[in-house]
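Narrative of accomplishments. A recurring question from our advisory board has been how the design workflow behaves on a single, concrete structure rather than in aggregate. To address it, we present the structure tokens for one chain from the evaluation set, followed by the sequence designed for it. No filtering or post-editing was applied between the two.
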């Protein structure tokens, strides 16, 4: 009924504005102006009141408004085919009413564009009129004088022509709606992209201000840990804002796909992993906003979908909730996972102002917005569409003034589908683990048991260490390809463990996992030399991806053949020379040594070298002057790549190193993996 009858604002207003006065006016015109034999004041009055009542649609209670399409539908039947046909019959098929019957058909087609619904309406109205005729007293004798077959042809042609015109108009309306949608979408893109781009600008402005402030204080060599973390956090927030913009672009690209194309892009994912990723990558405007989002880890489940569209759905729901929680200091968003027998669910609930009952049923309608400035009304519509594309759904429960709760539901996958997904995961990552030896560091037996279960199908050897001290002992005695550690260890934690490993000169990728939110742990992890960070509880897809990424990065460094390549190390510290030399020899590089710039020049004059690593502050001839001399001389080694190594991080020294011709500059203490990457890239 809703699809067959056009309940638009224009139609309701036109019906009220034209129908009510027309029925009232024509009663007197036909009865007293044209002196037609039959007119019925009661029927005209009822028709007039039905039309006038339509004006009150928006003021009706919600439960009444829900049934308005039925009222509208019944009113059309009474006001058009019933009354017009009653007057046609009761006036013995008067010529005037024969014309008005044709007019009525055109109007009815306008309001009821669905041909089947039109025929039903017309039949009900005509049948009602015929029944009214037989029940009327006194009975009117009918003596039609018009040519019924010819008039029937006219009526048929009228209906066909009316529907052709109606179809043409609907095509025009669809084109207008499409243009409106494109305009709204363009406006929405501009509005949505402005936010992440603005955040990028603000975060990098914050970085610039911090750098300028530290420059004024000459504080670069002694930057406090919290100062470094602040700069890193600003950079990370800028990166997340870029990701937000990319997600919006992904949404638009997904929106133009057809249903079959979207179905072909679906694959299996861990709901915990993707939900955590969305929460971590969302570009919050402040830490206050970030603290309002709480993810309650429940039972993980596998679902079939597309990563970009699920993350966008969650982004959209978080963004809407945060918008309405801005003025609520105690506002919070709780995200929970719930497994079921036939449907698994993600529940996103906030304690915001809630949604009024009268608009709750409209929030998934295209272009519907509710008190949100700059919104296009396309976000939730898109969410509904993409959830349906993966055979899921999105629904909303809300209590005005109390809460709003969105529920994302997914069909439960069969055991064979989950097994196939896990088999595919292992197939994608197996080659990187073959023959590798891992060290697992944790004091919790349950975590170690879970990790062993994840690694069981892979051809990998895994030893266990209970605590950081035990791990250091095992690292000294065994050749491990990767360290996988709990960062929340007692005593000296996983961060300290990673730092000590780096200081010892060992080249080993390190992946850590923590209960701490990743946005808080990331900067500290980078400073400690940790290649990968995972959140607890651990899930299979994240563990395999994190370990593979770290192993692959190491493989990329060591996969080349550097036999015959010569590196010159220039440093007045025997300890530093020994440390860097042992690191480079892991790449099968030939290493030559010099304790100052003068010795380095002598070696370069007599031996071919492919790369030079030099300290800055040395006796006799320091690193800067040595580099200046090499670049200014017309000699065979003038273009040798040079990397500066120093504890001096002042801007003056860095700029001078670049000016004198150094290719790169690393500040001590140096991360082993970073140094090796630099060496490999320049050699």
């Amino acid at each position: 009924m809703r699809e067959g009858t056009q309940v638009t604002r224009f139609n309701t207003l036109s019906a009220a504005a034209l129908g009510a006065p027309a029925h009232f006016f024509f009663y007197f015109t036909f009865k007293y102006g044209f002196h037609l034999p039959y007119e019925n004041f009661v029927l005209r009055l009822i028709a007039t009141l039905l039309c006038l009542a339509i004006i009150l649609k928006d003021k009706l209670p919600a439960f009444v408004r829900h049934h308005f399409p039925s009222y509208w539908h019944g009113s059309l039947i009474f006001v058009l085919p019933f009354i017009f046909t009653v007057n046609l019959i009761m006036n013995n098929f008067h010529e005037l009413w024969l014309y008005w019957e044709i007019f009525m058909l055109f109007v009815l087609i306008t309001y009821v564009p669905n041909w089947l619904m039109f025929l039903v309406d017309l039949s009900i109205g005509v049948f009602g009129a015929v029944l009214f005729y037989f029940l009327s007293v006194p009975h009117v004798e009918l003596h039609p004088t018009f040519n019924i077959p010819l008039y029937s042809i006219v009526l048929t042609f009228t209906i066909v022509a009316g529907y052709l015109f109606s179809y043409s108009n609907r095509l025009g309306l669809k084109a207008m709606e499409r243009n409106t949608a494109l305009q709204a979408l363009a406006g929405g893109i501009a509005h949505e992209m402005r936010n992440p781009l603005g955040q990028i600008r603000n975060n990098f402005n914050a970085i610039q201000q911090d750098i300028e402030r530290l420059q004024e204080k000459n504080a670069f060599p002694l930057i406090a840990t919290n100062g470094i973390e602040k700069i890193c956090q600003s950079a990370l927030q800028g990166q997340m804002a870029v990701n937000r913009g990319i997600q919006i672009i992904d949404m638009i690209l997904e929106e133009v796909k057809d249903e079959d194309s979207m179905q072909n892009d679906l694959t299996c994912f861990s709901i915990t992993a993707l939900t955590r990723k969305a929460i971590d990558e969302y570009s919050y405007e402040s830490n206050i906003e970030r603290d309002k989002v709480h993810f309650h880890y429940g039972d993980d489940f596998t679902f079939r979908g597309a990563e970009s569209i699920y993350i966008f759905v969650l982004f959209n729901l978080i963004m809407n909730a945060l918008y309405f929680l801005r003025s609520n200091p105690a506002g919070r968003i709780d995200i929970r996972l719930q497994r079921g027998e036939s449907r698994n669910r993600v529940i996103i609930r906030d304690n915001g102002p809630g949604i009024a009952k009268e608009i709750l049923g409209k929030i998934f309608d295209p272009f519907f917005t509710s008190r949100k400035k700059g919104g296009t009304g396309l976000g939730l519509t898109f969410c509904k569409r993409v959830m349906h594309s993966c055979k899921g759904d999105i629904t909303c429960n809300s209590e005005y003034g109390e809460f709003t709760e969105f529920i994302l539901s997914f069909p439960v996958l069969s055991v064979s589908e989950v097994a196939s997904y896990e088999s595919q995961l292992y197939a994608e990552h197996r080659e990187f683990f073959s023959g590798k030896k891992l060290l697992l560091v944790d004091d919790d037996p349950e975590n170690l048991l879970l990790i062993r279960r994840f690694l069981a199908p892979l051809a990998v050897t895994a030893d266990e260490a209970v605590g950081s001290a035990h791990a250091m002992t095992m690292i000294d005695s065994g050749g491990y390809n990767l360290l996988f550690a709990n960062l929340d260890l007692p005593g000296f934690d996983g961060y300290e463990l990673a730092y000590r490993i780096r200081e010892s000169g060992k080249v080993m990728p390190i992946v850590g996992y923590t209960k701490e939110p990743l946005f808080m742990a990331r900067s500290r992890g980078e400073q400690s030399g940790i290649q990968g960070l995972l959140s607890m509880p651990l899930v299979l897809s994240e563990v395999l991806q994190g370990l593979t990424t770290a192993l692959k990065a190491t493989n990329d460094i060591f996969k080349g053949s550097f036999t015959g390549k010569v590196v010159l190390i220039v440093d007045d510290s025997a300890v530093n020379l020994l440390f860097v030399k042992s690191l480079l020899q892991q790449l099968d590089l030939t290493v030559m040594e010099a304790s100052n710039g003068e010795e380095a020049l002598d070696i370069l004059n007599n031996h071919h070298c492919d790369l030079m690593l030099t300290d800055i502050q040395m006796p006799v001839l320091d690193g800067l002057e040595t580099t200046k001399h090499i670049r200014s001389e017309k000699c065979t080694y003038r273009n040798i790549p040079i990397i500066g190594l120093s504890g001096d991080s002042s801007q003056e020294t860095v700029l001078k190193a670049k000016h004198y011709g150094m290719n790169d500059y690393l500040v001590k203490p140096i991360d082993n993996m970073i140094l090796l990457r630099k060496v490999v890239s320049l050699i």
